[in-house]
C-alpha cells in the first residue's frame, strides 16, 4: 500500500509539474504574442505617419532647438524664412520618423526606435549586428521579426519590420541605385518585456492543486488501506467464529515448517471435530449449532497460547498448530487439555444445555510428514481412528492409519453402490422365552451381502455410514423393511409378538424420526404395540432432557422401548425411573462370562432384579451355552437371544424357523 501511495504521489507531482511547465510556456507565448502585436502596432503607426508625410510631399515645421533643418535633404525651398522670429524647414518622411524616435527616447526611455539600413546615409542609421542579420532575412522574404532579448536584468522585446522604397524616397536615395519597392532598410522597436509577471499566480495555483491532489491521494489511500485490511481480515478469518481459516493455517504451517527445519525443532498439527455435531443441527436447528461453534471457539481461544494458531476448517472441524514442541508428549498434553474443555456443558441462548465431546487426530513434523498436505492427511487419518475407537479421545498418526483411511474411503464408495444395487438385507434373530423355549419375537439386524467380501456385519460399515451421511437412508430403509416383514408374518398367522429394531443416535435425534416411524407403521400395517425400539444408554444420556421428551413422544405413538447394552456405562436406578422403557437388554459381555460363582453372574442377577423391581422386562443377549441359559432361568430372566437357539437369519429362513417353532409348541 505504501509503495502504491508513493507511486501515485510521484505520478501526481509529475503531472502537476508538467502542467505548470506547459501552462507557463503557454503564458510566455501569449506574452510574446502580445508584445509582438504591440510592437507591430507601434511600427504601423510610424509607417502610417510616414505615408501621410509622403502623400503631402513633406511638411514644413518651425525650426527649433529640437527640430533643426535636415542636412541630408537637398531640395529646393527646404527652408522658408517667414520673419525674423519664424523659419520653416521641410521635413521628409525619414526625418519625421527620426524625430518621432528621438521624442520617444526622450519621453519614454524604455521604448527605443531605430531607423536602419544596410546602405545608410546617416551614420546614426548604421545597423547593429542583430539588425544586419534581420535585414538580410528581409531580403530573403521575411515579413517581420520579433525576439525576446534577455541580455540584461530587464528583458526587452525586439521587433523589426522592413522599409520599402517609395516614389517619394527616390529623390533622396537615387544615388544608391534603389528602385521603387526595394527594401532599403527597416525600423526596429525595442519594448519592455516582463515574461514572469504571471509566474507567481501560476506557481501558487499549481502548488495548491498539487497539495490538494496529494491530500486526496493520502485520504483515498487511508480509505483503501482500511478497506484492504477489512477484506484481508475477512479473507483470513472464519466469518462465524472469528478464528483463522484454512488458508491462514496453511500459510502458518508453511512458515512453521521452514523454521522447524532450520532450527531442528518439532511441530504438531491437531485436527479435531465435534462428536455427533450433526445431531445438534438436526434436532435444534443450524442457528443453535452455529451458536455452539461460537461458544467453543471463544473457549478455545481463551485456553490456548497466543503463539498457537487455532483455525476452523469448516463445519465442526478445527485445526490447531503447535510450533516448537519438544516431543509427542507436549502435543498429547494440549490434546488432553482440549478434551477437558469439552467436558463442560454448553448453555445456548434458548436455554438448551448441550454436552458434546471431541475427537482429535495428531500428526508431527518431521515424523509424520514434511509438508502441510501430508500433515493434514495424516492428522485426519488419526482423527478417524480416534472416532472409530469410541470418540472423546485423541490418537497419533501411524502408518497403518493411512491404510485404514484408504479402506474406509473405498468402503464408503462401495456402500453407496450397495444401496443402489440392493445389497443390504435385514436378518432376524429370535427372542426366546427361556422356560418354554418358544419364539416371542425377533431383533432386526442389518447385513451387507458384499459381492466379494461376503456377508459384512454392521460394526464394519455403520460407522462409515454415520460419517458419510448415508445412515439416515439406511435407518429409514431398515425400519420400513422390518415393519413390512412383521405385518406379512402376522397375516400368515405367525403369532410374532415383537419386532425389535436398533435405533442409531442420528435416527433418534433427527427431527423427522417420529414422522418416519408413523409412515413405516401406516404403510406396512404393522401394529405399533408390537414394534420395539432399542436405544443405547450412551445415546439417551447424550442429551438427557431431550431424550426423555422424545421417549415420551414415542410412547404416545404406541411402540415399546428398550435400553440396549444396559450396564456398560451410565446404568443407574435414576435413569430407569426417568425413562419410560419397557425392557432392558443386558450387554452380551456380562453373559458370555457368567458361571455359577463369579462377578459377572452377580452383575447379571443385579440387573434382572433391578428391572423386575421397576416392572421392566429383562432380556439377556449373547447366550451361547446351556450353562448360561440355566443360570438365567434361575435368576428369572424374561427373554434371551443368542447362538444357543439360533444365529441371525435371512427373513425367509427365519420365517421357516418361526413356523417350525409354532408347530412344536402346538404339538406340546
Walkthrough of the structure:
This protein has 22 helices and 24 strands. It has three domains: 2-57 and 92-192, Beta-Lactamase, CATH 3.30.450; 246-397, Reverse transcriptase/Diguanylate cyclase domain (Alpha-Beta Plaits); 423-667, Alpha-Beta Barrel (TIM Barrel). A hairpin with a 5-residue loop joins β11 (346-347) and β12 (353-354). With 668 residues, the chain is α/β, with parallel strands linked by helices. α1 (2-55) packs across α2. The radius of gyration is 57 Å and the shape is rod-shaped. 51% of the residues lie in helices and 20% in strands. The longest helix has 54 residues, at 2-55. Strands 15, 16, 17, 18, 19, 20, 21, 22, 23 and 24 form a ten-stranded mixed beta sheet that branches. The protein has a five-stranded mixed beta sheet with strand order 9-10-8-13-14, sandwiched between helices. A four-stranded antiparallel beta sheet has the order 4-7-6-5, sandwiched between helices.
Amino acid at each position: 500500500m505504501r509503495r502504491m501511495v508513493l507511486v501515485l504521489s510521484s505520478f501526481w507531482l509529475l503531472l502537476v509539474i508538467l502542467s505548470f511547465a506547459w501552462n507557463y510556456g503557454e503564458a510566455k507565448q501569449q506574452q510574446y504574442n502580445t508584445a509582438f502585436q504591440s510592437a507591430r502596432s507601434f511600427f504601423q503607426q510610424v509607417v502610417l505617419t510616414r505615408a501621410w508625410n509622403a502623400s503631402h510631399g513633406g511638411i514644413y515645421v518651425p525650426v527649433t532647438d529640437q527640430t533643426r533643418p535636415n542636412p541630408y535633404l537637398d531640395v529646393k525651398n527646404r527652408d522658408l524664412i517667414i520673419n525674423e522670429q519664424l523659419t520653416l524647414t521641410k521635413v521628409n518622411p525619414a526625418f519625421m520618423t527620426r524625430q518621432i524616435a528621438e521624442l520617444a527616447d526622450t519621453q519614454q526611455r524604455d521604448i527605443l526606435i531605430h531607423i536602419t539600413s544596410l546602405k545608410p546615409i546617416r551614420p546614426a542609421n548604421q545597423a547593429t549586428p542583430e539588425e544586419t542579420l534581420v535585414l538580410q532575412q528581409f531580403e530573403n522574404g521575411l515579413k517581420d521579426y520579433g525576439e525576446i532579448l534577455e541580455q540584461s536584468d530587464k528583458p526587452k522585446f525586439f521587433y523589426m519590420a522592413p522599409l520599402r522604397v517609395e516614389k517619394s524616397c527616390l529623390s533622396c536615395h537615387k544615388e544608391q541605385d534603389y528602385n521603387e519597392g526595394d527594401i532599403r532598410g527597416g525600423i526596429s522597436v525595442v519594448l519592455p518585456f516582463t515574461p514572469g509577471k504571471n509566474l507567481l499566480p501560476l506557481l501558487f495555483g499549481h502548488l495548491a492543486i498539487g497539495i490538494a491532489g496529494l491530500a486526496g491521494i493520502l485520504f483515498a489511500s487511508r480509505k483503501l488501506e482500511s478497506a484492504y485490511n477489512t477484506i484481508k481480515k475477512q479473507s483470513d478469518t472464519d466469518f462465524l467464529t472469528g478464528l483463522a481459516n484454512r488458508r491462514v493455517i496453511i500459510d502458518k504451517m508453511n512458515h512453521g515448517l521452514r523454521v522447524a527445519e532450520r532450527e531442528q525443532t518439532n511441530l504438531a498439527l491437531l485436527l479435531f471435530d465435534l462428536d455427533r455435531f450433526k445431531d445438534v443441527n438436526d434436532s435444534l436447528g443450524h442457528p443453535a449449532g452455529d451458536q455452539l461453534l461460537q461458544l467453543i471457539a471463544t473457549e478455545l481461544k481463551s485456553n490456548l497460547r497466543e503463539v498457537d494458531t487455532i483455525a476452523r476448517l469448516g463445519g465442526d472441524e478445527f485445526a490447531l498448530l503447535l510450533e516448537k514442541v519438544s516431543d509427542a508428549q507436549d502435543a498429547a498434553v494440549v490434546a488432553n487439555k482440549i478434551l477437558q474443555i469439552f467436558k463442560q456443558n454448553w448453555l445456548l441462548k434458548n436455554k438448551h444445555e448441550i454436552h458434546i465431546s471431541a475427537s482429535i487426530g495428531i500428526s508431527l513434523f518431521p515424523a509424520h510428514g514434511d509438508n502441510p498436505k501430508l500433515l493434514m492427511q495424516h492428522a485426519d487419518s488419526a482423527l478417524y481412528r480416534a472416532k472409530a475407537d469410541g470418540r472423546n479421545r485423541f490418537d497419533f498418526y501411524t502408518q497403518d492409519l493411512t491404510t485404514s483411511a484408504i479402506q474406509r474411503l473405498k468402503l464408503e464408495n462401495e456402500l453407496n453402490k450397495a444401496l443402489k444395487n440392493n445389497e443390504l438385507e435385514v436378518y432376524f434373530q429370535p427372542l426366546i422365552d427361556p422356560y418354554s423355549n418358544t419364539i416371542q419375537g425377533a431383533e432386526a439386524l442389518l447385513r451387507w451381502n458384499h459381492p466379494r467380501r461376503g456377508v459384512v456385519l454392521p460394526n464394519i460399515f455403520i460407522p462409515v455410514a454415520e460419517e458419510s451421511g448415508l445412515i439416515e437412508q439406511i435407518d429409514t430403509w431398515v425400519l420400513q423393511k422390518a415393519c413390512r416383514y412383521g405385518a406379512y408374518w402376522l397375516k400368515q398367522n405367525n403369532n410374532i409378538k415383537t419386532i425389535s429394531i436398533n435405533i442409531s443416535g442420528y435416527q433418534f435425534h433427527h427431527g423427522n424420526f417420529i414422522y418416519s416411524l408413523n409412515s413405516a407403521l401406516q404403510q406396512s400395517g404393522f401394529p405399533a404395540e408390537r414394534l420395539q425400539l432399542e436405544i443405547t444408554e450412551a445415546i439417551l444420556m447424550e442429551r438427557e432432557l431431550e431424550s426423555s421428551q422424545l421417549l415420551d413422544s414415542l410412547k404416545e405413538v404406541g411402540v415399546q422401548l428398550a435400553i440396549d447394552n444396559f450396564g456398560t456405562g451410565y446404568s443407574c436406578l435414576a435413569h430407569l425411573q426417568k425413562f419410560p422403557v419397557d425392557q432392558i437388554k443386558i450387554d452380551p459381555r456380562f453373559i458370555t462370562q457368567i458361571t455359577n460363582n463369579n462377578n459377572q453372574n452377580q452383575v447379571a442377577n443385579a440387573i434382572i432384579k433391578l428391572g423386575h423391581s421397576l416392572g421392566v422386562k429383562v432380556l439377556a443377549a449373547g447366550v451361547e451355552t446351556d450353562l448360561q441359559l440355566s443360570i438365567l432361568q434361575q435368576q428369572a430372566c424374561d427373554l434371551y437371544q443368542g447362538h444357543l437357539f439360533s444365529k441371525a437369519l435371512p427373513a425367509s429362513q427365519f420365517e421357516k424357523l418361526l413356523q417350525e417353532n409354532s408347530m412344536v409348541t402346538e404339538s406340546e
